[in-house]
Specification:
6 helices; alpha/beta; two-stranded antiparallel sheet; 142 residues; Ribosomal Protein L13p, Chain: A
Amino acid sequence: MKTQTTFMQRKEDVTREWHLVDVKDKVLGRIATEIAVMLIGKNKPTYTPHTDAGDFVVVINAREVAVTRGKELKKIYYRHTGFPGGLKQRTFEEMIQKNPEEVIRLAVKNMLPKNRLQGERMARLKIYEGAEHKHASQLGGK
């Protein structure tokens, strides 16, 4: 009788790939979950929870990401300066105008598990406002 063994991937055996994601006219939340899955490595058959086996993800056209049900004006991003009365807020529309990369970055970061690997995973995320990016050589000319 054969016994089944559980596969555990080692840090040395991780091979990272590069993925190009065009978010033009895609819904923010749905595309953020797909990006998070690629950063974690859950799309690979060798996924092991305690090993960071995720891939690099290059996101282009961040300015043209879509939201549903009129959230351009309803969705609000909050931050605090650290001083009394320092709660600042911006709508989705203002964030897209001032810093479209931050919209994608915040959505993906909130989709990732809050653990020690989150920073390493976020470092593999490259976001660009337009279609031009500097990672063509890693992507094989895409």
